[in-house]
Design goal:
Layout (H helix, E strand, L loop, with lengths): L2 H17 L13 H8 L5 H8 L3 H21 L8 H9 L4 H9 L2
Length: 109
């Protein structure tokens, strides 16, 4: 590195120290927290950041597992719930979705 790059890095370090005395990250969207923590070095790891943000991964995982278990139960018992069987569900999953028809359906009262 040449002298000007070293000077810039030193100025950047001094500026960060000046504005980051109380060790708070700037107000940013939680999605960019990991980037800010790497820039500002708040001392927490990425796992601690994700744990403190209270992500919804585990909630979504449990809901997905419950849906799968429900589907398997319907398939094994050959039951029809609301006139829908497991074969109809499988057909609907494999079918291409018509976006225009969906928008019309949702728009109608």
């Amino acid at each position: 590195m040449n002298e000007s790059e070293l000077r810039r890095q030193e100025l950047l370090r001094q500026t960060r120290k000046l504005y980051n005395d109380h060790n708070e990250l700037p107000a940013v969207h939680p999605r960019y927290g990991r980037i800010c923590s790497s820039l500002y070095g708040d001392g927490r790891t990425a796992a601690e950041h994700s744990a403190s943000s209270g992500g919804s991964f585990y909630v979504r995982l449990v809901i997905g597992i419950l849906c799968f278990v429900f589907y398997v139960c319907v398939d094994q018992s050959q039951a029809e719930i609301a006139q829908v069987s497991s074969s109809v569900i499988a057909e609907q999953i494999g079918q291409d979705m018509d976006a225009d028809a969906l928008i019309e359906t949702l728009a109608s009262p």
